[in-house]
Write a structure and sequence with these properties.
Layout (H helix, E strand, L loop, with lengths): L2 H11 L1 E5 L4 E5 L17 H13 L3 E5 L11 H7 L1 H12 L3 E4 L10 H9 E4 L4 E4 L6 E2 L1 E6 L5 E5 L12 H16 L13 H18 L2 E4 L15 E3 L8 E8 L2 E11 L5 E13 L9
Parallel strand pairs: 1-8, 2-3, 3-4, 4-7, 9-10, 10-11
Antiparallel strand pairs: 2-12, 5-6, 8-9, 12-13, 13-14
Helix pairs in contact: 1-7, 2-4
Length: 299
């Protein structure tokens, strides 16, 4: 299937979430929460992520995870991920219990689209020490894409992980998972980068972004994605392609906020006060730009 048609397929099937200028939404992706081993890319930024998520929870934001939340290519067991990062899942469950959590799956956690896997591991999970299933995200639905629709203007924003523009990471994802799990993960210890990941392959990153932008221009629609791990915030004269980056940057996590009718790109990292005290702080990288001012791209 043509990649532009593939994105349109997701767009047409996506559930819509209405919002207005009083809404507060935070979007993050590519956490790649792992099992706590040397291969767990999320481990070094877990405190940044938890501090940011706590801020958004306390300030009544809706959290949307735009794919690859959990690293389920390198890891077979979700139980290990849940045990290692139990504080994160506890906080995410609080969002869910208040109706403020939406989950999109990416290529690295695509198994969440299967009802059996989601039911046994995400709605509830097997807690081996107590030998019973424990509720987690009860009855949550995992989406391939979501559409944000402004209640007043009717303007729509497609949220999609972005792997749909790459055949290996989309239709052939089981082959890619096999290669990552049994070939590239062991070779990574020798310093060999995984060529299947757009985040670590410049040419795949560029190709993915070009296809996403081609869809935006063709369909005259705004799009927010992850997948490439490269934060993107377009200039006023550029097609409205936004990317929230990732939570596994070397020294920070990045995210996209929608608040007071505007969109902005932010990062969270460790900062230093004048007295040498360390703290986790938020910094605006780009924006805010009013959504109503973002024009449809010209063909």
């Amino acid at each position: 299937m043509n990649t532009l048609k593939r994105i349109s397929q997701v767009y047409e099937a996506a559930e819509q979430i209405t919002f207005d200028d009083s809404s507060k939404i935070i979007m993050m992706s590519d956490c790649h929460r792992g099992d706590g081993s040397w291969a767990d890319d999320f481990l070094k930024n877990q405190n940044l992520y938890f501090a940011a998520l706590t801020h958004y929870y306390n300030n009544n934001y809706t959290y949307i995870e735009v794919g690859d939340g959990d690293e389920l290519w390198e890891n077979r067991s979700f139980f290990e991920i849940k045990q290692i990062h139990s504080n994160v899942f506890w906080l995410l469950s609080k969002f869910h219990n208040e109706g403020r959590l939406h989950m999109i799956y990416g290529n690295h956690d695509m198994v969440k689209k299967y009802k059996k896997f989601a039911g046994l591991n995400m709605h509830r999970y097997p807690d081996k020490p107590v030998r019973r299933h424990v509720p987690l995200f009860t009855n949550i639905k995992f989406h391939e894409g979501l559409v944000l629709k402004h209640e007043t203007t009717g303007k729509k924003i497609l949220l999609i992980h972005g792997h749909q523009v790459d055949c290996l990471n989309d239709r052939l994802w089981k082959l890619a998972r096999f290669l990552v799990r049994y070939l590239w993960r062991p070779l990574n210890t020798l310093g060999v980068n995984d060529p299947t990941r757009a985040a670590k392959n410049y040419y795949k990153k560029e190709a993915a972004e070009k296809r996403l932008i081609d869809w935006i221009i063709k369909e005259k629609n705004m799009l927010i994605a992850g997948h490439t791990h490269r934060p993107m915030f377009p200039k006023p004269d550029e097609p409205p392609y936004f990317n929230d980056g990732s939570c596994v940057h070397p020294r920070c996590i990045t995210a996209i906020e929608i608040v007071e009718g505007g969109i902005l790109l932010v990062k969270w990292n460790v900062k230093t006060k004048n007295d040498g005290t360390l703290f986790i702080g938020r910094e605006v990288l780009a924006g805010p730009r009013k959504l109503v001012d973002i024009e449809k791209p010209e063909v």
